Amino acid sequence: ALMSTNLQANSPLDGRNKEQNFQNLLQACRAGDLERVESGHYEVVKFLLESGARCEQDTFEGARCLYGALTEGIRELLLSHEFTKAVDETQPYRHFLGQLFEKPLDSFCDVVFKLVSNNNFETFEFAAHRCILCARSKYFAKRFETTWLTSKIITIHRNPLCFREILRYLYTGEIGEIQEEYIMEILELCYEFDLDISEEYLNKSSPKRAQEREKLEIQRLQQDLEHFCKTRVIRDKRYSSEDQVAENSLSAQELAQADLIINVGNRTFPCHRAFLTRRSDYFKAMFTGSFSESIFHHQQDNKNLPVFQLSGCTPEVFSLILEFIYTDKCEVPPSISYDVLVSADMYLLDKLKSIASIALTNLKEPTKDIYTLMRTALDLGVERLESWCSHWFADHINEVLEDPQFLELVEESAASIKQRQETDTIPLIDEIRYWLSKKYCVFEEDVDKKSGRVVEHEGEEILSWEEEYNKILERIDQALEKLKLDA
């Protein structure tokens, strides 16, 4: 979030020795001091692992940590410790917020804080986003609605290093490594800005406690942005009466600190390009491309903000899409889960597609025509929904075998195999046979590999449910024969 180049890596806040250590490494490389370069600091790595450091192999950072180890000893040490099996689903979201903090000039920042150092009177400038500061701090929310309502550059007489860490916390829920001499000053800023940060959190004394605090902070961050999104962006009337009172004096756009208006049907949503373009490649292309200006029109009652008319989506569905974009989570009602799935695919929101598919497949019966669901699953590549539809077909096999729509779907499935031979498998039929084998408790060792039917072994009779299973497979084969297909 730093615009000025005055704050270097060797500032007191970042530690005075970092730059020197880096220079020492460069000198060792130039001198060919291989032993010094390859040291790897084995004891330090061991200490960190024993103190609770995590190496998550399935993440980019974890893989880089493992494969980028400077020595075989360090690599073996990492492998000797159990990799955590947990997947941090919030990591992409936290990366997004971190990018907003680190690179505000690349993500539609709309305010600059100018701070003067008390030591040498140097000036530092920090770019930021009003919407995030409003969501995270009542102090900033009140200021931006009153004395700072139209301010683009705001001068604050505070320690620049401490203020930067406060900004980091507001964006990410984290505080960087700080020297003890700055702790009290940061705590004073926390009190002034109405932030709940304890001295224990700043000291980071216990790795385990720090991990617990980290989880709580990301939850709090999501809750703050969820409240902001629902009361200022979506403007759901079920939330907080105090915000409705404030709307009497300020416009919805001013309350939301919006830089863009999106109209969907009869609803107006004051939005933020920082969120839309960073979270969705669809909106990134829409609002930052060469033709972005041509898609906007202006309305005088919207304070000259650009207005975009969005089609192909209902206000109810778009509200959920915005909630996901701002918070990385949302609850999708089964009644609109199909529409959310299709819209999430259009707006390139893969995680929301997964959430919508879970809502669709947690039901016993489809909320939409089953054939429409299956084709959508295939078109959008939603394996969970495709498997659920196949399972439903298996449970209703006697009914669907008489349905021309099902037979048409089988033909489409056969045609999906490029250069299919006469006896090649058909994906849909294979899936149905799999679910039937589960339903009738048929094991692979009991069936004939060619026909797929249960065969009678010496001294054993075929059970009644196995006979029923064989009859169903025979009916499937007869249906395939009528279609002149073999699988």
UniProtKB/TrEMBL annotation:
Domain BTB: 109-179, 258-334
PROSITE patterns found in the cross-reference section: BTB
Keywords annotated in UniProt: ANK repeat, Repeat
Annotated Gene Ontology cellular component terms: cytoplasm; ubiquitin ligase complex
Protein name: 17790_t:CDS:1
